[in-house]
Description:
Blueprint: E1 9-12, E2 26-31, E3 35-42, E4 45-50, H1 61-70, E5 74-82, E6 84-85, E7 88-89, H2 91-95, H3 102-111, E8 115-124, E9 127-128, H4 134-144, E10 152-154, H5 161-170, E11 178-183, E12 193-199, E13 202-213, E14 224-232, E15 238-244, H6 249-259, E16 300-312, E17 315-316, E18 319-320, E19 325-329, H7 351-355
Parallel strand pairs: 1-12, 8-10
Antiparallel strand pairs: 2-11, 3-4, 3-5, 5-8, 6-7, 8-9, 11-12, 13-14, 13-16, 14-15, 16-19, 17-18
Amino acid sequence: MQPPVAPMLAKPAAAVPDPAGWPDGLGYEPKWDGFRCVVFRDGPEVVLGSRNERPLTRYFPELVEGLLRELPPRCVLDGEIVVAVDGRLDFPRLQERIHPAASRVAMLAERQPAAYVAFDLLALGDRSLLTEPFAQRRRRLEEAVRAAGPPVHLTPLTTDPQVAREWFVAFEGAGLDGVVAKPRDLPYRPDQRVMIKVKHARTADVVVAGYRLHTSSTQQRPLLGSLLLGLYDDQGTLQHVGVAGAFATAVRAQLHDLLQPLRAETGDHPWAGWSAPDPGGQRRPGAVSRWNTGKDLSFVPLRPELVCEVGYDAMEGTRFRHTAQFRRWRPDRTAVSCGYDQLERPVSMTLEDLLARGGPRTGAPADPGADDTSREDA
């Protein structure tokens, strides 16, 4: 097996699925919030392959060193690269590792080393395991990493749907996305959506305080690209929390026209100074992207009067973790009533507590037909 190998993917579901109807049942795992990575080790060589099949190897030198130390001499694993801060996954810190300067990568590797959470085994020694069922691959994975230490970790697994539902709530406090369900008889199918993922889905009422034009917008036909969203903090300051996009072309034109009466002078806007570089390192509308310095992130300011409801999955600090989904306008809400106090707070749990449930690491390997996490452990 040679790199690259596209990882097996998941399709979304609204709720944790029941194992009834699956011949051999389902295995449930936490959904990690990091960089998906297929690891190839062949003796002294390690390659870290990403979901888009581009290598991540140069960005994580400390992982390469750790994987050489902790993994079997020849193997291919599927898993996730993560960075944790204060017992919680920190995706922005992970993103900082994708940097062109080797000196900065080395500095970040020392200050905030990454870890690798393994959840599948694709090959071991001279043998490909792609055609073996997931239950057998999991047993072999446990054997392969039984004696491994950090930075290698084994993801928790259960076959009990009630435990999975409890994980769905409890593990969010450690920064995880949700739960993944895998048919126990499933062979590994690269680049196919054959697993099931359940992510957190919530709504919030937010202030529309600006917009960006779409890349296909013209003077003859202006099109809205995305709405810039805000929430008021405890000090009454309107904080930028994210954007909402993914509109049909006809809707983009309608939204652009709808928002024109609310256009504001930049100097009178709450985010008037946000086009300048921020010494605190916060992302701001209009600021130069730290990923693409040539990208235009300028925005059209609006009077903060319009409120809409959006769907979101999770928060990352004071912002939405991903792009929000526009649901509807809320003419019954006043902008000043849209604060952080309406947002759900996840149950507190540290990453160390979660990884402690990662199944057997010493002694005899687990029975492939048995649960890896007991009901009481949840």
